Amino acid sequence: xxRSDYEPFSRIRFRLVEGDLKVEQGEWRLQALKGGTATRxxxxxxxxxxxxxxxxxxxxxxxxxxxxxxxxxxxxxxxxG
Length: 81
Fold this sequence. Notes:
Blueprint: E1 2-7, E2 11-16, E3 23-33, E4 38-48, H1 55-77
Antiparallel strand pairs: 1-2, 2-3, 3-4
């Protein structure tokens, strides 16, 4: 279970409040560009687990998945999806 805190048009912060993970928190930061007709998105996520999984494996999974999430966000924002 997560808690999300919203700062309209600029930031969404999230953090784990209950679940199997030790830590998961981060934010989506939105930066208006071109007079508000475009937006740059910054994503930050911190993850900590108490599972017997090598850290390198977790990092590699995030390295593969996060670009896909951002590409899908862009596709949806551009109206293609």
